[in-house]
Amino acid sequence: MKQKGLLFVVMAFALAACSQKGKAPATEGKEIVEIIWQYPSPGDLGAGFQEVEDALNVMMERDIGVHVRFEPVGLMESQQKAALMVSSGEQLDIALTAFTSIGPIIESGLIVPLDDLVDQYGQALKDHCGVLLDKCRYGGKLYGIPPAYIIGEGYGYMIRDEMLKKYGLTVDETKLYTLADVEALFEKVKAGEGPNFYCTIPWNTEPAPLNNSYMAYDKVMGSFAGGVLMLNRSFTDLTITNLFETPEYKAYAEMMYRWAQKGYISPDAAVTSESPDTLYKAGNYLGMMYWHNEKKLNAYISTAGTDLSSMKLVDPYVVNGGGQALMWNITTTSANPAKAVEALNYIYEHKEATLLIQFGLEGKSYEVVEDGPDGKVIKYLSEDVSTLPYYTPYGLWGDRLEWPVVYPAPASMNRLLKERDDAIPQSRYSPAMGYSFVQESVATEVAAVNTVITQYTPGFNSGALNPATALPEFITALKAAGIDKVIAENQRQIDAWAAANKN
Q1: CB 326, CB 98: distance < 8 Å
Q2: So what's the pLDDT on residue 104?
Q3: Which of 11, 23, 147, 157 is the most exposed, fewest CB within 10 Å of its CB?
Q4: What CATH topology corresponds to 21-146+324-358?
Q5: Dmax of the chain from CA atoms?
Q6: What is the C-alpha separation between 90 and 218, in angstroms, rounded?
């Protein structure tokens, strides 16, 4: 009898624990729902991380009855970690999709559609994200919430001001430069600096040529496995093309190989595990391909610890991109999807919550140096942001055009960015805006092709592979993996979509 009684107590305790999943302790009679939210981090969270989370919870418990528990994760590991948590039945309410196609995540049953939830609990999400929500759709359904920001991007080459001064060079940030201009600059600086000094840092985790600074294109499936629209040729043509078979890509691979042979790229660039941020701070790099965008440049100045200028290589344009590169998703093991969407909505609706998560606590991580009609300017309390009690390099929280700007950027920067964004002509919008590719019928081929792309592109991007021999091998491997079948299916779907959406 004692054993049966003990078993009953244990079972009752277990059932009670299960019934409390997703709930934090009640506060003043109000039930508080706990939301587990992935928090992308480059590593060390800092001594002030818990204090920031606690301050956020004071606000959210009071206003919407939500207690957030952040789950730290590497930016590029978020989907993998989310899949592990969901497959084990572990509660995870808000996960991050980062720089990948959303199709496999949806088809694996990892995340849920959000249309009804956003209609009911996400008015601020609609107000702030607008057309960006359309980039988070798959098969016509909404699956993600993007960081709200400008809708078009320009790209360029970010360069150290100290090196410009040393070599008597100037940069006009409004001029459209060519890669020949950049290469001439490389030649001059490399001749002066000698060995163990490099001119650019390939992003070997990203297959895009020159981190998107090479030319305008739209990977409408979200991956090169499904081909691209060659926007550098036309912003009206819906022909899907295998990027890697184009003359443009051959010229790119030859240029990278030439740069590596001349010592403009580090010999270990294809295999290094160090991040571009870490390498850039080392001081023996001239610059890096990056967004040509005032806000991101100024933010990176804080990370790099030195003044920078930007050479524009690609004018701003708007792409489908296979959806949003970064988006928040609600997982299938969310204990309360409605409250998860409400929590997301909260940080878009309340600027003070966004400010807290992005910049930490005033007086501890930053100070306000200007607060006027054009907006707020803040300054970090240390030139070395790694020593701050709280710092995140990722701009993922809320509406970024409502953030304060970071000194020495002018308070007017957000307004100017919005004006520039609004000024992007419709002639530089991809013709695939609103299209979403459903990859279910070619999922096996997509996975195989992406494996080949991952195998070869770091070598091309770093100049480690001679395209004379490696590029034909790459193309042959892509075809063997099924890229032609994927592109044909993508073409079929986009043609059907275009026919159904004719005005």
Answers
A1: yes
A2: 79
A3: 11
A4: D-Maltodextrin-Binding Protein; domain 2 (3.40.190)
A5: 90
A6: 36
CB count in 10 Å sphere of residue 167: 14
Both tokens assigned to 354:
């966004």
Cα distances (angstroms) measured from residue 53 to each of 68, 73, 169, 333, 364: 7, 15, 45, 22, 14
Rounded Cα distance between 197 and 190, Å, is 7
Which tokens is 359 given?
């910049």
Enumerate the CATH 3.40.190.10 domain ranges in the chain, comma separated: 21-146+324-358, 153-321+430-500
pLDDT band at residue 10 under the 50/70/90 scheme: very low
Position of tokens 């624990």? 17
Global pTM exceeds 0.85: no
Token representation of residue 331:
């997982």
Q: Crossing angle of helices 179-193/247-261, nearest 10°?
A: 10
Structure tokens at 442: 């070619």
- What is the phi/psi pair of residue 394, to 5°? -100, 130
**Band (28; pLDDT cuts 50, 70, 90):** low
| Residue 16 pLDDT > 80 | no
Tell me if residue 322 falls in helix, strand or coil.
coil
**Separation CA 216–CA 315 (nearest Å):** 9
Q: What is the pLDDT of residues 118-139, one digit of tens each?
A: 999 999 999 999 878 888 888 8
* CA angle, residues 229, 149, 419, in degrees to nearest 5: 90
Q: Which two tokens stand for residue 273?
A: 């595990």
Could you write out the DSSP letters of every residue in 67-89?
Answer: EEEEEEE-GGGHHHHHHHHHHTT
**Cα(181)–Cα(116) distance, rounded to whole angstroms?**
51
pLDDT of residue 161: 96
* Phi, psi dihedrals of residue 290, rounded to the nearest 5°: -155, 180
Cβ contact 70:37 at 8 Å: yes
Query: Contact at 8 Å (CB) between 71 and 35?
Result: no
Residue 355 CA to residue 375 CA, distance in Å, equals 13
3-state secondary structure of 320: coil
d(CA 292, CA 466) in angstroms, rounded, equals: 29
Locus of tokens 């060519």: 178
Give me 250's structure tokens: 């051959």
Q: Which residues contact 442 (CB under 8 A, 6 or more apart)?
A: 482, 485, 486, 489
Sign of the Cα pseudo-torsion (105, 111, 116, 122, in order): negative
End-to-end CA distance of the chain: 77
Contact 33, 68 (CB under 8 A): no
Task: Return the H-helix or E-strand segment holding 416.
Answer: helix 413-422
CA 431 vs CA 79, 236, 251, 320, 493: distances in Å = 29, 6, 26, 8, 14
123 CB-side CA count, 13 A: 2
CA angle 22-24-30, nearest 5°?
A: 115
Say which residue the tokens 């034909």 belong to: 472
Domain spanning 153-321+430-500, CATH architecture: 3-Layer(aba) Sandwich (3.40)
